[in-house]
Each structure stands twice: as C-alpha cells, then as structure tokens.
Amino acid sequence: MKRKIIAVVGILGILSILIGYKMYNKPHADIAGAKSIATFSAADLQKTFSDKEEEANTKYLDKVITVSGKIMSQKTEGDKVILQLETGDPMSTVICNLDPFSTHRRKEFKEGEMVQFKGTCSGYLSDVILDRCVELE
Amino acid sequence: MNKIVLVGLIFSVGFTSISAQKFFTKTGNVSFFSRTTMENIDAVTNTANCVLDMTTGNIEMAVLIKSFIFPKALMQEHFNENYMESTKFPKAVFKGTITNIKEFSMNMKGKFKGALVGSITIHGVTQPIENVVNLNPKEGKIAADLDFNVKLKDFEIEVPALVKDNISREIKVEVNTVLEELKKAQ
Q1: Are A129 and B91 inside 8 Å of each other by CB?
Q2: How do residues A45-84 score in pLDDT, each as one tens digit?
Q3: Residue-level pLDDT at B19
Q4: Are the beta carbons of A62 and B80 separated by less than 8 Å?
Q5: Residue B89: is it exposed, middle or buried by C-beta count within 10 angstroms (0-12/13-18/19+)?
Q6: Closest residue in A to B87 (Cα–Cα)
Q7: Could you count the other beta carbons within 10 Å of the beta carbon of residue A132?
Q8: How far is Cα B32 from Cα B155, in angstroms, rounded to an integer?
Q9: Torsion angle of the four alpha carbons B111, B114, B119, B120, in this order, in degrees rounded to the nearest 10
Q10: pLDDT of B18 above 70
Q11: What is the pairing mode between strands A114-124 and A64-77?
Q12: Pairing between strand B141-151 and B125-138?
C-alpha cells in the first residue's frame, strides 16, 4: 500500500514538473494561424487611432488585425525588419515589425509596393504599431 | 528674374533653418534586463518614438509597453498582464530637457555628454529623472544613447511573492536611437 502511494505521488510529482516546464517554455502564439479580428487599409487604421485612441485601444490592443497599404520605407537591423506603410500623412503612418518567431517568405520589400500584413496591435504613438507581423499573399 | 532667385533663396534658407531645429526617430531601440541568480530576463522593442528640439533642448520619448518582445511567451504574458498592466497603461513616456544643448554642435567629433533632466512615466506613475545622454553626431544624424535603472517599487510595480526571487528589484533600461533631421516637407 505504502509503495503504491509513493509511486503515485512520484508520478504526479514528475508530471507536474513536466507540465510546469512545458508552460514555462510555451512558444509564442502562432500568428500565421491566428484569426484576424479586423481588416483595415493603412490610412483607415491610422485614422481610427488618431481620431479616438482610447476607443481603438479597447477594441484592438493585443488583437490580431490585418492591414494593407503601400510600403513607404524599410529599415533592417540585423534580423529585425521594420516596415512603414503609407497613410497619406508622412508623420503618422502604420509601422509593422516582422515577427521574429515566424519564417518569412521574404524580408526585402520595395518602396511603393502594395502589401498586406497580419500582426498584433501594440497601440499608437505618432504611428500605429503592429508587432509580430507576417505577410499575407 | 533676380527677384525670383532671391525669394527662392530666402525660402530655402528659411526651410533649412526650420528643419534643422528638430531631430526625431520612430524606430528607437529600448531594451531592459533583469539579472538574478535564479533567472535572467530581457526584452526589446524597436519602435520607440523620440523627438529632440535642438534650439530648446526639449526631448520627448515614448514607447508602447506591448511592443516589448521577450524570448519566452510566458514572460511576455506576465509582464503585460500582471506587472505592467499594459492594457490600462499602454505607454511609457519620458519628457525632459537637455540643459546644456547649447554647447552641442553637429560638427563635434565624438560623444557629447548631454545633461538630461525630466520626468518618466511608467505604469501610470511619474517620477523625476536626471541622467546623462550621449549624443554622437554622424553624417547629419545624431546617435543618442543612455541607460538608467528603474526601481520597481518607485513605479508601483508589484511582483508576486512566488516569483520574487526571479525578478530583480531594479531593472536596467538601455536606450539606443539614431535621430534624423525632421524635414517638414517630406
């Protein structure tokens, strides 16, 4: 009897360590497979935030959204790629950070090219910022 | 004809002097580190905003808390939900002045030590800050960097007892930006 209890406790102990370890190391959410809750043009997204930032924050902060627009500029630093999308206002754009945890079809973009990205919305500074972006076909 | 040239000249001079007043970036790098014997934690964002007014020395910097990327998803979740409450307080903001900006010039070689005085708001709490910001002019741009320590207690950031040995009481923050001239007509 005593042996059985020890065995059960032991197995439970090992299981909980395994589960704990797995939770600690759980991967970042898969953006490519995540459902986008809204789709915007870059200009509309910028306007949504510049008009009513608080309301837009409650709706879209931390949510996966889709944005399309023309590439205004690309900045590459090591493996980090930051893309700015045109909105009509060069001082207030949409900034997309390519996801460091996803594999990308390409990391080079041309100015003026139309693109569509899906990413999580981090909020609004002078620009709307999307992190963890992946390009949609 | 001469008049047109003159007007054009005045305009272009006017424009350069206006545009020379402000430097900015939208892609500043901010990272932070927590070192304890139990665990090292670091996170980084590349989309910090910064504007520096060269005539007054006024400088403003803002960063979105949710844009910090952690190597581990769980850390990022805890950071946003439990410690920083980033839905309630989405931004961290620094506002201040480089008091000795008059001594700085774009032609100087090497680093200029700017005396930074201002306030920083994190987690909805504002605290005064005094620091040195290194300004390094290069090819018409200014590399600006600084580091400072943030005491969690000062910003009312609470760490649960369960993980208190895993998170340092004092977090080191590093800011690295390259400021470009703000041109009004882009």
Answers
A1: no
A2: 999 999 999 999 999 999 999 999 999 999 998 889 999 9
A3: 44
A4: yes
A5: middle
A6: A61
A7: 24
A8: 15
A9: 0
A10: no
A11: antiparallel
A12: antiparallel
Report residue A86 as tokens: 């045109």
| Inter-chain residue contact A122 with B66, CB threshold 8 Å | yes
Residue type, A24: Y
How far is the C-alpha of B59 from the C-alpha of B53, rounded, in Å? Answer: 6
Rounded to whole angstroms, the Cα distance separating B45 from B31 reads 6
**Single-letter amino acid code for the residue at A20:** G
Residues of chain B found within 8 Å of residue A26, distances taken between Cβ atoms: 73-74
A81-123 pLDDT, tens digit per residue, is 999 999 999 999 999 999 999 999 999 999 999 999 999 999 9
E strand map for chain B: 22-35, 40-53, 58-64, 91-98, 112-122, 125-138, 141-151, 170-181
CA B107 to CA B5: how far, in whole Å?
29
Place of tokens 């001082």: A91
Q: Which residue is it, tokens 């950070």?
A: A97
H/E element, A15:
helix A2-24
Indicate the length of chain B as a whole number.
Answer: 186
Give how far B1 is from chain A: nearest CA, Å. Answer: 34
Amino acid occupying residue A127: D
What residue type is assigned to position B2 of the chain? N
**DSSP three-state, residue A27:** coil
Nearest CA to B67 among A69, A55, A135, A100?
A100
Cα–Cα nearest to B22, from A75, A91, A47: A91
Q: Which of A60, A70, A58 is nearest to A96 (CA)?
A: A70
**Is B74 in contact with A26 (Cβ distance < 8 A)?**
yes
> Secondary structure of A97-133 in the HEC alphabet?
EECCCCCCCCCCCCCCCEEEEEEEEEEECCCEEEEEE
